[in-house]
Amino acid sequence: FTPCWKVVPFQPLRTEKEKTIYKMNHKWNYQPITPEQAETSQILAQELGISPILGQLLVQRGITKAADAKKFFRPQLPDLHDPFLMKDMDRAVERIDEAVKRNEPIMVYGDYDVDGTTAVALVYSFLRRLGLSSLLFYIPDRYTEGYGISVKAIDYAQRKGVGLIIALDCGIKATEKVAYAKTKGIDFIICDHHLPGDTIPEAVAVLDSKRPDCNYPFKELSGCGVGFKMLQGYCQFKGLPFSEVECLLDLVVVSIASDIVPLVGENRILAYYGLKRLNEKPGKGLSSIIKICGLDKHVITIDDIVFKIGPRINAAGRMEVDSDDENAAPSGGHSAVYLMVARDEEVASEYGAFIDTCNQDRKNIDRSITQEAHEIIESRPELKNRKSTVIYNPKWMKGIVGIVASRLIETYYRPTVVLTMSNGYVTGSARSVPGFDLYQAVESCADLLENFGGHIYAAGLTMRPENVEEFTRRFNDYVEEHIDPEMLIPQVEIDSELLFSDITHKFRTTLNRFQPFGPENNAPVFVTRGVSNRGDARLVGAEQEHLKMDLIQGQKPNTSIPAIAFQQPTHYEHVRSGKCIDVCYSVVENHYRGTVSAQLRIKDIKKTPVK
């Protein structure tokens, strides 16, 4: 692979003005439980033999009976739903079986992000084991084809003699592309989890629990999760043991974590056993990434996937590569799939190293673009003072703008759209803040767009250059009219007050059973008031952007607990002075040289009010 991008050196944020981007006043939301909830928590805690605070956390999650708590703590694979409850499942597995029996060429197709590439690796790996001699996969190039099903891919499939395309994490709106494939004698099976349009494509089967005519009980599967259900259905149809797909759950949990889907219901079960697989016996490709991330001697969590494994897999599809062979499938996201389907450790290591290099280059570029975006916003009051951000630079890299949108929200905390130019069109990514439906905001400008898609909190869009100004005006007006001012203030939702002395080994052990954490089952956030540091607080990180400290409560040295506050250097002087502070945090485990200890991951710090 020959990279064709230019890396712009990143200049660290050094000036006092630039460092103010770290400052953000959070609103702490803490609603003490009702007397009735407190009574239920006490009873539940006694029945389970756990801390009353942990009993309270269960009640706050809607779990009020010991039997339900035990089910929550020990997810069971038999509790997965019957895949044939999903509309078109019977048609999907029958068409796959027909292709397998005829040894018909199949192309597995997916989006270039983590969810898409893990889904492709999942289905490809399964079908490969069935002995198909003509099996290939295809990831569209972000820069020449864009998101979703492409005509180029269909033409490529025709040249390869493909009779069936299985599309994963995309395709629910590809009505015209599916019809075009049919004229080429190619069938489609679509496995998607995005919201459908007005018309469902006329594919052989369309698996998407968000279809209005689908009664599947769980609506929040990842794209890879839908692919997993299809394979589960195929195993049931053919009488194959569940172990044939259970061994692929490491791929499913990477998709669930990276695509930020709710970690409840089926996703909790799939993620629980996926993490178990990822920690005990991952595939060779994921094992390579785990070693590169330095996670091979740690217990891997959802956070590790979100912040270390996922970004590396994503990087391959974000970075542009050269390809002179017009008959070749694009190379960008393909390297991620080659990694994840690798059966040889040496091959896996080579692809792992390449992807890690992509990730390093990606980080340099996204930092540089983010800095440029900050400079533009800070220099233009009309941009800085709005309730939303729409920013456009035709020179920015298409694969990075989604990350930049997320970075800008960290600073300005408002719905954000970052646009650039690609292949004659303006294209970009949008990100939102909790509570605001970004998809509806983008959809309100649909007449100005060539294409768009996404979720409530993230979307992608494409338009003609002449529509940028009008889109900017209308998007900003929509946000201005519909957003609740409270949504523009970063919130910290606090579950309970806690004393440092409550954080015992037993407490941490039971708290770990609430995992895996994620949307709708977030890591509990606690508040402890009147704590202090004895002068050993220090700034760490490449730019000294993180605050590390030991905190004590009262005058009890034995209550000292290590803590880290990411991206909060502005609290340094006050904390180091030893003055009292209130902290809200989650409790995590720090693994170092075989020793496991508690660490506080600080969400926010406030000065303790003087009484």
Describe the global form. Answer: globular
Mean pLDDT: 90
Which oligomerization state do the chains in this entry correspond to?
A: single chain
Structural class: alpha/beta
Query: What is the count of DSSP helices, taking H or I runs of 4+ residues?
Result: 22
Spatial ordering of strands, largest sheet:
3-2-4-5-6
Q: Could you tell me the number of beta strands?
A: 19
What is the end-to-end distance? Answer: 64 Å
Strand content: 15-25%
Low-confidence stretches: 1-23, 322-330
Q: Roughly what percent helix?
A: 40-55%
Key terms:
disordered N terminus, alpha/beta, about 40% helix, 22 helices, about 600 residues, five-stranded mixed β-sheet, five-stranded parallel β-sheet
Would you spell out the secondary-structure blueprint of this structure?
Layout lengths: L15 H4 L7 E4 L4 H14 L3 H9 L5 H8 L15 H13 L4 E5 L3 H16 L5 E4 L12 H9 L4 E5 L6 H9 L3 E5 L13 E3 L15 H16 L4 H4 L2 H10 L6 H16 L3 H10 L8 H17 L15 H8 L3 H35 L1 H4 L4 E4 L8 H12 L3 E7 L2 E7 L6 H6 L5 E6 L3 E6 L4 H15 L8 E4 L1 E2 L7 H8 L13 E7 L5 E3 L5 E8 L7 E5 L6 H5 L4 E12 L2 E13 L4
Parallel strand pairs: 1-12, 2-3, 2-4, 4-5, 5-6, 7-8, 13-14, 17-19
Antiparallel strand pairs: 8-9, 9-11, 10-11, 14-16, 14-18, 15-16, 16-17, 18-19
Helix pairs in contact: 2-3, 5-9, 6-9, 6-11, 6-15, 9-11, 11-12, 11-14, 13-15, 13-16, 14-16, 15-16, 16-18
